[in-house]
Specification:
By secondary structure, this protein is mainly alpha-helical. 91% of the residues lie in helices and 0% in strands. The relative contact order is 0.03. The model has no long low-confidence stretch (mean pLDDT 87).
């Protein structure tokens, strides 16, 4: 029985020590939280508030940044279009002035032949 009483007394002492330590830790935590809050307020008081002009400028900078993003996208689209057109032009090169003249002459010659044949057909139909 005395062994149980001794063990019980030891447990009570440990429980009291833990309770005392828990209370001290809680007080220390509360003290630290108050200190952090106080330091945070002091730091916020040191930071300058922005004036209306500065807030307006911040808004303008944000707008310009958004417009710049849009312009970058547009520029990239134009680059892609230019690459495509350049690649297409290489595959299908334009005719030179001399080549255009020859094509016109051939088309005119064919046009003249077609007109001549149409006139012959009209003349043949009139005779019959």
């Amino acid at each position: 029985s005395s062994g149980i009483n001794a063990e019980y007394g030891g447990l009570r002492a440990d429980c009291f020590a833990l309770s005392t330590r828990s209370s001290a830790v809680s007080k220390r935590q509360q003290s630290l939280q108050e200190r952090v809050s106080r330091v945070t307020r002091e730091v916020q008081n040191l930071l300058p508030d922005l004036s209306d002009a500065e807030n307006s400028l911040r808004g303008e900078i944000t707008d310009l940044s958004e417009r710049t993003k849009c312009l970058k996208t547009d520029a990239e689209q134009l680059r892609s279009k230019m690459k495509f057109q350049t690649a297409t032009a290489r595959k299908f090169p334009a005719m030179t002035g001399d080549q255009q003249g020859r094509v016109k002459a051939i088309l005119q010659e064919n046009d003249d032949k077609i007109n001549s044949l149409v006139n012959k057909l009209k003349g043949a139909q009139i005779r019959t």
